[in-house]
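Exercise 7. Predict the structure of Signal-transduction protein containing cAMP-binding and CBS domains from Corynebacterium ulcerans.
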Amino acid sequence: MIRFMTVELDEVQHFLAENAPYAQLPAESRALLTRSAEIRYCKRGSVILRCGEPNDLCWVIRSGAVDITDENGVLLDRREAGRSFGYSTILGENRNRYSMIAVEDSLLITITRADFLAVAEKDASFTRFFSSQSTRMRAAAEQVRNNDGSQSLRAQLGDFMTTQPATLHPTESIQSAARVMRDKNVSSLVIATDEDICGIVTDRDLRSKVVADDVDVTMPVSGIMTLNPITATTTTPAFEAMMIMAEHGIHHLPVRDTTQPHKPLVGIVSSPDIMRLLRNDPIYITADISRRSSAEELAEVFARSKDVAARFVERSARPEEVSALLSHSADAVARRLLGLAEEELGPPPVPYAFVVVGSQGRKELGFASDQDNALILSNAFKPEEHGEYFTVLANRVCQGLALAGQVLCPGDMMASNPQWRLTESEWISTFTSWITAPEPEALMFAQTFFDMRLVHGDESLYSNVRASSLDQARSARRFHAHLATVASRREPPLGFFRGFVVERGGDYAHTLDIKKGGIHAIVQMARLYALTCGADALDTRQRLNAAAGLGAVSEKGAHDLLDAFDVLNTIAFDHQATDLRVGNAPSYHVDPEQLGKMDREHVRDAFHIIKGMQQALSTKYPTRSM
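Solution. The predicted structure, encoded as C-alpha cells:
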C-alpha cells in the first residue's frame, strides 16, 4: 500500500543536503528538485515498482529500506535511507528492469522526471552519479587526477626546460668553453658528441678547477668536466628533479627524450628554473640528505619529508605524487646510510646490490608502510671471508631506516636477516623454487620479492636476477593459478547488500581496512597480469597499463581497477595525513562513519569493482579447486 503525505519542502531539502549526490548541488538546484516533490508512505511488503513497468519518478528513501530484485525475484541490492532508485528509466531505459519492494515501513521522496532532468542538464556530475558504477568510479578518479592543487609540482621537465642548450665537443678547449658560456650567458655547458652526453661544465668548475689551479686554458675541456652527469627525461616531474638535485648536490640536469634515442640531449633544467616554477608554491622539500652524516640527522630529514608529503595531500596532490615523494625520500636515506657504512667499513669486498621490495619497490610507499629490503651479493662472495662485512652493513642500514621512521618489517623481510642476503645465483634458484613449488609461504615471499627495485650498488646483479625471475614466471601456469587464488580470496570488506563489513573488536573496531581487501587486492591482480604477459613493470599503474596493452586484462578492467586504486589511495592518504597532524600512528583503517556520503559511495563502488575482477580471476584460473 502506498499513501501520499503532505510535503514539508524545507525538511525535504535539508534531508537531500545531507545525502549524495544531492549534497554537492547548489541550494537552488535542490529547490528545483523538490518544487513538485511528494512523500509517499509504503507499508512493509508493498511493491513500489514492478519489473517491466514504466516509471517517471526518481525515488529517494527518507526512512526504511527497499529491496531490488530482478525479473526472477533474485535479490540484487538492498537500499536504505539516503539512497535512490528508479532513475534509470529517466536517464534512458524505457521500462523498469527491476522490481522495488519495501522490506520495512518506508517513507519515500519522489522527484518528477522534468525536475530531475532540469538539474541533470545543468550539472554533469549529478548525471554521472546516476550512471553506471564504472562511470561513477571513473569520474571520481578523474577528479582526483585533474585537481589543480599542485599543478606546478606535477609539471614535467619537458614543459619548462631550456631547449637547444649550449653544448661543446669534448675535444674543444677550456677557453672555447668559457667563451661559449659568456656569449650565451649560461652557467653550464653540456659536453656531448652526436651520440651521447659525455659530461657537464659549470661556472663553478671554471673557478675551482681552472682559475684557482692556473690550468692551461688551451687544454681540452674534457679534462675539467664532470663525467657522466646525472640526467633526467622530459617526463620527469618537477618535484622529482628537485629532489634529485638536492640529494646529489647539483644544480643542472641535462634532459633526454626516451622517444628519441638518436638524440641524446633535448634540453637542460637548472635549480633556479625549478625554484621559479615553485616560487608561489610552499610545498617543496629541500632535500639535504646527502649532506647528513648520522642516522639521527637523516631521521630529522625523513620526518620533514613526511610532513611535506602530508602537505601534498592537503593540497590535493595525486596519490602517485605522494607515494613518489615518500619513496624517493626513503631511497635517498637508504643510499646515504649505505654510503656512511661504506665510509666506515671500507669498500665492499665483493660487488653487491641493495634492493627494496614490496610497496617501496613499486614506488608506492605510504605513511604507514614498513621497510622491506634485501642484498644481492656477487657470486664471488665467501661467507667466511666476507660475511661479517655485509652483516654489519645490513644491520646499520636497517636500524638506521628504523630510526628514520621506516619501521622494521614485522615479517623480517630485510637485509639484516641472513635469509635475504643471497648471491646472484642463490637468488635465481630461490625464485625458481618459489615458482615451481608455490607453497603458501613461498607465495607470500614471491609476491613481495617480485616487486624488487635497485636502490644502490651493482646494477648487473639486480638486472640478472630480475630478468631470470620474469622469464621463469611468464610461462608458469600453475604459479599463476596460485597467485590468482591469493588475489581472489582477499575479498573487499563489502557485505551482501553493499554494506561495509567493519572490524568487530580490538584497536580498530568499527573500521574498514581499505588496504587488505582493497588496495592490496588491486596490487596483487596487477602483479599477476604483468607476470603472465612478461611485462617488466613494477608499479601498479604501469603494470595494469602494460597488461592491458598486451591483452592480459581487458582495457575496461584495467581502467576500472586504476580508478578504484586512485580513489582508495586518496582516501587512505587523507586519513593518514590527518593521523600525522594529530599525532596518531598512520594506518589504513578508516571509520566509514567519518567519511562523507559521496566518499562512502565511491568506496563501495571501488570494492564492488574489485570483487567483480576477482570473480573474473576465479573463472579464468581453477582457484576454487586448489
